[in-house]
Write a structure and sequence with these properties.
The chain has about 250 residues and is mainly α. It contains 10 helices and no strands. Helix 3 crosses helix 4 and helix 7 crosses helix 9.
Length: about 250
Amino acid sequence: MSPFNHICRLSNFITGSYKNILLGRTTWLNQTQICNYTKKSAEAKLGIEKPKRPLTPFFKFMTQMRPALLAKNPGISSKEAIAWSSKHWQELDNETKAQMLKEYEKDLEDYKKIKEIYESSLTEQQKEDIKRVKEEMAAAKEKRKLKAEYKEMGRPKKPMSSYFLYAQSRNETFKSNNLKEYQERVKKDWLKLPESERTRYEKQAQELMNKYKKDLEAWELKMLSIGRSDLVRQKPLRQKKTKSIKDSQ
């Protein structure tokens, strides 16, 4: 590569076009992004463009082959696509693999340089924001994981409140597709509901809650018996009941 091309590539990095590291050198003058299905990072959520690590030779090969593979096999699963790519990668000649490795090493050098520039350009506020968003994303991920485990292990679902039971009963009578209009109408009607009607929904909600508490306690005891104490709350219902009895005395 000529010195001029090398300078131009680094210049593109410095001005913020970090996506270059995902692109093939053979199409440097007419670049098209070949990979754009990664999860949104903390920096992206904050509108900060962070340099992306270059794809390894295998993943670059897999990404380049993906359009042709999907054209021939539209319904192929991710697992099948990886197996297909792996098979064809193994069949690829050593000369092509060596060239791709050489390009990857060059891309990696460029990435390290621009990463240093990027990190030194961040303000203290940006660093704090990135740290905060990463912590929020990690917490959200753990919450999703826990929710999935609850579902898998059959944890009882918390019942609806009296208001939502009433709203559910109004679904069939409301014809409009406007959700906001529906919510406003239900809220307005709920406030006008006679005391006897509201009491009926509150009683139904309380009965469902009592059943939920019993089911949840039984489920938690079952989780403890199979060694899944990580899915049980720190203060099970039985402990709360015992404490409330002592407090009343």
